[in-house]
Amino acid sequence: MRTEKDRAAVRDDSLRWRPRPTLHGRDYTSEEVWEQERERIWFGDWVCIGRSEEVAAPGDYLVRDLAGESIFVVRNREGLLRCFYNVCSHRGTKFLDDDARGNVRKAFRCPYHAWTFDLDGRLIGTPNVREDELFDRADYPLSPIAIGEYAGFLFVNLSPEPRPLMEALTDGAESITAFERYRMEELRIGHRLVYEVEANWKIVVENYNECLHCPTVHPELVQVVPLFRFGEVWDERTRDDGNRMVEGATSFTMTGRSELPKFPDLDPEDYGMYYGTYEFPNLMLNLHPDCVMYYLAFPRGPRHTTVVSEYLFRPEVIGGPDFKPQPVIEFWDLISRQDWEVCARAQTGVGSRAFTTGVFPRQDRFLFWFNEEYRLAMGRPPVG
Ligand code: FES
Ligand SMILES: [Fe+2]
Hints:
Blueprint: H1 4-11, E1 20-24, H2 31-42, E2 46-51, E3 60-66, E4 69-75, E5 81-85, E6 101-103, E7 107-109, E8 116-118, E9 123-125, E10 144-150, E11 153-157, H3 165-170, E12 188-197, H4 201-208, H5 214-217, H6 221-224, E13 242-244, E14 273-279, E15 283-287, E16 292-301, E17 304-313, H7 326-350, E18 357-360, H8 365-377
């Protein structure tokens, strides 16, 4: 677990920084590392899989592929969230389709032999299995998975002994819990983009956490956030890792303006700020005065990541006359595509036999701390 001292070390970064090595090339390419990551990171602790609004009503369900395990979330009759492996307890069939979402009134039915399970995962129907077979349905429920919610985000934990969700969320050098004033639990998805990125998920995360690439890769972005011109992601004079937008900008768009109504009751300075924060392992959150956009990374193997990019707005704004989100979406979509292109280039390069490790200068220190967090999760010693 990250301590206060570690946190201070990330902040106290002025002159004492010395260059550190990046992860090894094989960490981005090898199947063996990927298998370890699946167990230790994706199945070993809390991971964000979406928003609770997607399973708002009893019977609503959502299927996700989490690092090769198909799982689903459902809201039960009492309104509680449940999560299970998408695996029939009869003979193992995957009974719901990938990325399916919908509503079942009472039960899920396996398409193979039509066994049915209720919203709490109990086996309730076994057609043609005779009563006198001494077969007790109670012995064959679906396999449950821990699920929790914070700020409207759904988190699942596939480990048999999950630690408290809040402990995981407040661990690490940065946390999404610093932004309660944005009342994210009230926000709703107004737009969704899905990107297929030809890069390891850690390259996507590392790219998110540095801005050394901003002047070259994002000429439009550095117009809106001047600090990014200098390759920095963190303005030491503002709190919560905020970055001030250019004078007069009140929205994260090409022009710095939008017609979207601003979020109510933020702190006065928030209306000119951009905040970005990362929650290990796969949630990258961007807060703006009128919109919240996050990336959710879903790795498909060592060389491919599906990135879901969702845009949150006030519910009363979505569908109303002022709902003109296009400038925000277009601006982020441009930045995203620029990023994915360089991520794919980076992936190709780190797979070369010429590459062992690279180097992190000071502006890359957040990547180093991400790597330290990664090493900790992987059971490797820290580089320090
Ligand atoms: S495998 Fe699901 S009902 Fe037989
Ligand atoms: Fe970028």
